[in-house]
Amino acid sequence: MKPAANFRKHSARKRIAVIAFTLVELLVAIAILAILLVLLSSALKAARGAAHGAVCLRNLNQLGLALTAYCGENNDRFPSNWDGTRNWSGRLIVDHFLEGNPSESAAGRSPTLGCPAQRLVSGVGPDVKTYGQSEVIGGTVGKPLTTARSALRNPSQTIILGDGHFYAPGKYYAGHINGSTTPPDKDHQGASNFLMGDGHAERIENNGWLPGGSGQYWAK
Q1: If both were cysteines, with which of 22, 109, 152, 168 could 197 make a disulfide (CB 3.0 to 4.6 Å apart)?
Q2: Domain residue ranges of the chain, discontinuous segments joined by +
Q3: pTM higher than 0.70, yes or no?
Q4: Rounded to an integer, what distance in angstroms lies between the CA atom of residue 79 and that of residue 89?
Q5: What is the arithmetic mean of pLDDT over 11-37?
Q6: Mean pLDDT across the stretch 20-35?
């Protein structure tokens, strides 16, 4: 009887060892899976951010074409940030330089005005982030300007439009920006996108657009 009893004990210990080894393997597999999920999530987030940035730059290029056409029929001058009735984007829509709904608000409504880098602001849903025209170019509500393109000393380094800080549920309310009180948002992986005076759009890292920075982006 002793050999049989010893055999049963040995078999039981062997089964326990096999089960324990399987549990260790399972835990290792779960840990590896968790790491892969984290890496995949980061990669997807980066890819989504890059896609948003590309669409944003495309929008700015389209707005640049609309502004070029507007200037061509308005003594080579950019629209004002407020002309007493509409801001620059509303003026582009009303005068048929940009496709959109002119009756939506003083800013009009056009998908081209909406940057895809949206975020939850109102607490109700994703708010639409729009673009702003530089106050150096279009002034403010109280002090409007209509700057001539020929007045730009360094067009390729002069900001015309950029990522705005304007959010409203379902609205496309474009406005104005500057380097201090109403700065651009940095929603593209810590950078901002801009349309420059020569018509090209570019991504500027971090606070490289601050006044006094490289290229004097806020100067005419």
Answers
A1: 152
A2: 2-205
A3: yes
A4: 8
A5: 71
A6: 79
